[in-house]
Amino acid sequence: MIRFAMMRHGHTEWNRAHRIQGRTDIPLDDQARLDLSAFRLPQGWQDADLYASPLLRARDTAKIVARRDPDTVDALIEMDWGKWEGLKGVDLKADPDSGFRDIEYWGWDYRPPEGESPAEVWARVSPWLFSLTRDSIAVCHIGTMRMVLAQATGWDFLGPAPFAVKRNRLFVVEVDDGTVRIADPDIVRLERTDT
């Protein structure tokens, strides 16, 4: 059994504007860089293998917090939002013809136009995840994290999620023999550098 921790990247201009980023490679904003520089990996995680999505916002978050370069993994890239990238969810939701649904009504097969379904994201992430051989951290995206956490909790994207992905935390699961389950503790906060 290994521990696998996921961390969401820092804020970007698009995050703050509530635009759907998907695979659009938007960098961290200056405030995010400043905020992240006040944190470091918590005790027990400094020597874990470090991975990141190939998108700049994830790679830079990893480097700032871990103070070392991550290995990039294509499988960790954000969910493909297709034609909805760059748009705002609130605007899509207001358009009855958009096909947009809130996440608690997705199921595993819901797909944005020309995008990727949760089942497709899991199919791309799981072979890499189950190939890990030691404790690891992945700095990635809320979409990627949701797929792993959904598998670990048994959530099927119907009804409220049993977790809330927040920043500056490691979300920890245990990976063992082709299964993934929530670890104890399941959330570990990053440590402040000023303490």
Question: What would you say this structure looks like, in words?
Answer:
The protein is α/β, with parallel strands linked by helices. Helix content is 27%, strand content 21%. It has 6 helices and 8 strands. The longest helix has 12 residues, at 118-129. 33% of the residues are buried.
Question: Would you summarize the structure shown here?
Answer:
The chain has helices spanning 13-16, 30-36, 56-66, 89-94, 118-129, 142-153; strands at residues 2-8, 39-40, 49-52, 71-72, 136-140, 169-176, 179-189, 191-192.
Topology at a glance:
Elements: E1 2-8, H1 13-16, H2 30-36, E2 39-40, E3 49-52, H3 56-66, E4 71-72, H4 89-94, H5 118-129, E5 136-140, H6 142-153, E6 169-176, E7 179-189, E8 191-192
Parallel strand pairs: 1-5, 3-4, 3-5
Antiparallel strand pairs: 1-6, 2-8, 6-7
Helix pairs in contact: 5-6
Principal-axes geometry comes out as globular
End-to-end separation in angstroms reads: 32 Å
Count of alpha/pi helices:
6
Give me the strand/helix succession: EHHEEHEHHEHEEE
Helix % is 25-40%
Largest sheet: 6 strands, mixed
Which terms would index this structure?
21% strand; 8 strands; globular; alpha/beta; 6 helices; single chain
